[in-house]
Input
Amino acid sequence: MSRSTPSQLARRRWLGIAGTVAAQAALPIPQIFASTRVWGANDRPGIGFIGTGGRAGAHIEICLKLKEQGRCDTTAVCDVYRPRVEAAAARTGGKIYRDYRELLADRGVDLVCIATPDRHHAPQALTAVRAGKDVYVEKPLTHWSQMELAAELGDEAERLKRIVQVGTQYVADEAYAKARELIGQGIVGKIVHVQLGYFRRGDWGERMPIPDPNAKPGPDLDWEQFLGDAPKVAFDVSRFFQWRLYWDYAGGPATDLLVHVFTPVFCLLELGYPERVLGGGGTFQYAREVPDQCNIIADYPGGPSVVMSNSLSNYTGIQTILRGTDGAIVLGDGNHPGPGIRIVPVAKDSQEVVIPWSGFDRTEKLWENFLECVQTRNRPFSPVDIGVRVQAPLNMGILSHREGKVARFDSVARKIVLE
Ligand SMILES: NC(=O)c1ccc[n+]([C@@H]2O[C@H](COP(=O)([O-])OP(=O)(O)OC[C@H]3O[C@@H](n4cnc5c(N)ncnc54)[C@H](O)[C@@H]3O)[C@@H](O)[C@H]2O)c1
Output
């Protein structure tokens, strides 16, 4: 953890993904200009679903309800696995695509919902914003190896004025904005320490079903597209259906779970990038590549020091607490929200303030907010610039854990440096 000497600095390992970015830039971008359409209250934006697996099922259910209310249309569906895309088409009435770039060229698609494995999120979202679409993209914003892509997506969404909602539904609540105002007025002083955690029991990757153990690459299953820019390996039925178990496609609890409880911190505080991050943990309980216990410490310049913790051993959780010089902000844990955002003063004669939640774990509310923002062009609950800043320490924690080094962030180049 000591400061680097000049020679160490010279030997810094820059974790670029130049190859990935170059490969991405070479993808054919559909020739559609950014929409300048002004949405009327009775207009129904057409939604295209990219990835029609487990999570997309929840999105489709919500969007079908919103469609019934006349708020959107379900225009198109895309997946590299034919049985799933056909089932989604039957449910939604959407046109079938097997390549997301073809779906993006469909003029009936105004918005996309991206619910593919992690490493496709940023490449597909980038292509979508460049094709003039607004985007609901599942968390995590990127795979742990793709920090530059996250930053590029943030820049492009801003430049092209696209609405990008990152799928962290715990932040779909007005309580954050109210608490943020009070924190800005100094109600708890300067925030110097943050703790948060997400705890569960079970190897959730293992629980991903293998619907067809005999599935093979061919007309029904596009293995090349599943791999995308991941290392080219021979087809493996578990990698395809249970991708969460493997480093090539997933990052374990940091990007799967901690992202949910970390994002709210950014809705409360103006946090940039950490100056150093340490990642610990390991695979101590289940047979899988990615860790089943994960701890990350992220120190921000001048504070706070953020301690994130996870275990897949049991549900006993810890509350999210932001500790300030004059009091604390207390939220629930990943599974129990508590009564609302509690503001607990240090001074004994001061009263605790509770800002109640309007709900918990509300994907439906995140969708309603997304559709509203598509019309109003207002900032959504879970905007991409927060997604980029959330992603940095998570990726750094994973890299630190994997390489046994301290991760630092070069905030000018927005790159991760391991020392
Ligand atoms: N916000 C939440 O609470 C929440 C919950 C569950 C999952 N998720 C996220 O949703 C994403 C999907 O998770 P899941 O559980 O639905 O996985 P899944 O494997 O069930 O679904 C992913 C689908 O994407 C398809 N796919 C793979 N590569 C593709 C490509 N290049 N183009 C088009 N389709 C492709 C697969 O065939 C599969 O049908 C993950 O990133 C996960 O983190 C979020």
